Amino acid sequence: MDAAASMLSADDLALIDAARAVVRAHYRYGAHTVGAALRTASGQVFAAVNLDATVGRLAVCAEPVALGHAVLANQGRAITTVVAVRHPRPAHAHEAVSDEAIGVVSPCGGCRDLLFDYAPDAVVIVPGLAGPVRVPLRELLPLPYRR
């Protein structure tokens, strides 16, 4: 991957901020700890939080919830960029958490597959050695499942 292609733009940083804002606004330990934001070709941003569940396998990641919002707005196939962030559990209930502590995380395998179904040419912002980087979804999922 070209190093210049992996650099974040102002729009990418704004997308990370949108994911941070949604998880900060709805954070609840054990329920909503991950936020995701998707940007479409038209510049629309769809953000959501994960839905945790008492029965763990019923939990839904933040990326599919955001994708559902985009699909409902008829923008599901126009997704260009995706990012997810995780809110750390504060040591004390009223402890403030900095934006930098709400770090970028890589989508799980299931989310990669689902995103590939809707946006195979999208770019995903993932953690890198020196900070978040842009990676084509196809590089994160080189051999996707096909029926």
Could you give a quick summary of the protein structure above?
The protein is of the alpha+beta class and 147 residues long. It is built from 5 helices and 6 strands; from the N terminus they run ααββαββαββα. Strands 1, 2, 3, 4, 5 and 6 form a 6-stranded mixed sheet that branches.
List the SSEs and their pairings.
Blueprint: H1 3-6, H2 10-26, E1 34-40, E2 45-49, H3 62-72, E3 79-86, E4 103-105, H4 109-118, E5 123-126, E6 133-136, H5 137-140
Parallel strand pairs: 3-5
Antiparallel strand pairs: 1-2, 1-3, 3-4, 5-6
Order of helices and strands: HHEEHEEHEEH
Care to count the β-strands? Answer: 6
Number of helical segments with 4 or more residues? 5
Biggest β-sheet: count, sense, barrel?
Answer: 6 strands, mixed
Structural class computed from helices and strand pairing: alpha+beta
Rounded radius of gyration (Å): 15 Å
Write down the overall geometry: globular
Give the low-pLDDT segments. Answer: none
Give the amount of beta strand, in percent. Answer: 15-25%
Distance between the termini: 29 Å
Kindly state the mean pLDDT as a whole number?
Answer: 92
Helicity level, as a percent range?
Answer: 25-40%
